[in-house]
Amino acid sequence: MDFGEKNIYASLFNECYSTKIQKYTYEFCPFGKASQKEGSSSTDLGSFKSFDFDNKGELIMTFEDGQKCWNGPKRSANIVFKCNTENEIVSVQEPSTCVYRYTFHTPLACQQSELDRLNDLIQNQFKTEL
Ligand code: MAN
Which terminus of the chain, N or C, has less C-beta within 10 A? Predict the structure, then answer.
């Protein structure tokens, strides 16, 4: 498995994240399972299948073979990783019934170009203060 440059994504092993969004609490454990909870009931949204970069260079983690949807497919989830300061699920959509899309913020997804841009901002700030 590809854990990214310097294997940084391996640090997500055995971690789980969850966020309450309206009536559901959405959870996922990278390399484990994704679920949707409501009160004491939990619906399986799938198990970890793959870890790929899309055409925008964003990392997508795919979970498949979850609990079957009434009159529909087995539930599945795609987790889109975006560069930000905290590890946090910030939104979950259901673009088609029983197909879920999480947006997950993590500093692990920051590319060198984004770090360079931040560095430029800091340098410029410093210059104007001198
Ligand atoms: C539950 C939830 C929903 C899903 C429906 C489908 O209510 O899992 O997200 O759309 O089942 O019947």
Answer: C
